[in-house]
Amino acid sequence: NYMKMMTARRVRNEQRVATRGAKPVGPNRTAFVRETRSVYHAGVPSYDTIDQLARLLSGAVADLGLKSWYGEHGQWGIFHDGYRQSKARFIYEEIQRAKADGRLPATTVQACEVGFLAGHTSLLFLLSLGPSAKMVSFDLGDTEWAIDQGELLTEAFGERHFKLTLGGSNSTVPQFHQEHPR
Question: What is the set of domains in the chain, with CATH numbers?
Answer without folding.
Answer: 2-179 (3.40.50)
